[in-house]
Amino acid sequence: MTKVSIAIPTWENNGRGAEFLDDLIRTIVIQTLTDYEIIVSDHSEDNAVKNVVKSYESQGINIKHVRNNEKRGNSPANTNAAIELCTGEIVKIMFQDDFFYDDEALEKIYGCLTNVENDWLVCGCNHTRSDGRDFYWTLMPTWNNEFLKGVNSISSPSVMAFKRDKVTERFDENVSMMMDCEMYYRMEKTHGQPIFLHDDLVTNRVHEGQISMQTYNSTDYADKMEKEIRYCAKKHS
Q1: Which of 20, 99, 121, 147 is 20 to 30 A from 203 (CA-CA)?
Q2: Which residues, in sequence order, are bridge partners of residue 196?
């Protein structure tokens, strides 16, 4: 069995999706742990992302592209679709506009989750606004009791990994901004708190085209966030 499956939900990303995916994969192929598979679930309507996958496939990289026409535009649904295709011991989620900061990231994650009782892990991350030329705001994950209020002290799903045979939870497709917070809350209720790997292994790319940024800058951001918080509170009351 493959040690690590990397689940990547993709879309056109305002014309930069293929570029972002290529950046991410370049940080995967230099990992010290080489027993991995890459699963790309693609919500794109063009072939730009698919062509990136084909170029790496031709180089012998263990990568699979699947065109996902279901629930296009729903990030939780596309993430779930990628997870369902994974066959490895450990599932590592990576959003396409993020990338690995540390070339030992997979090795560290796999080592921490092997032969322990914990079923999931979250690692540290940093951020870039300059496509990886400069980095800022290193965030080390911590737990809090207000995830259902949108207080995210862990970061995006790109810092999360879990044991595939132990974790059946999937992201709630009814929320977008709260997809990570709601998932972390449920995971803790079922599996206990994660391993907190205080090492910045992942870089979150901050850009105007990302869904969270577009939502945050929209005029109805507050209303959307309040609606999702009410939904989560009712779901878990």
Answers
A1: 147
A2: 122
Q: Distance between CA atoms of 179 and 177, rounded to whole angstroms?
A: 6
Write out the H or E segment, with its range, that includes residue 195: strand 195-205
* Dihedral-angle region of residue 192 (phi above 0 means left; psi in -120 to 50 means alpha; beta otherwise): left
Please name every residue paired with 205 in a beta bridge, in sequence order, or none if there are none.
128
In whole angstroms, what is the distance from residue 231 CA to residue 2 CA? 37
Residue 114, judged by CB atoms within 10 A of its CB (0-12, 13-18, 19+), counts as: exposed
DSSP-derived letter for residue 64 is E
> Does residue 113 register a pLDDT over 60?
yes
Please give the Cα distance from 109 to 188 (Å, whole number).
19
The pLDDT tens digits of the residues spanning 206-230 come to: 977 656 555 555 678 899 999 999 9
CA atoms of 157 and 118, how far apart (whole Å): 18
DSSP lists the bridge partners of residue 92 as 6, 161
Q: What is the pLDDT of residue 209?
A: 63
- Per-residue pLDDT tens for 132-165? 999 999 999 999 999 999 999 999 999 999 999 9
User: Hey, is 204 helix, strand or coil?
Assistant: strand
C-alpha to C-alpha distance for 33 and 28, rounded to whole angstroms: 9
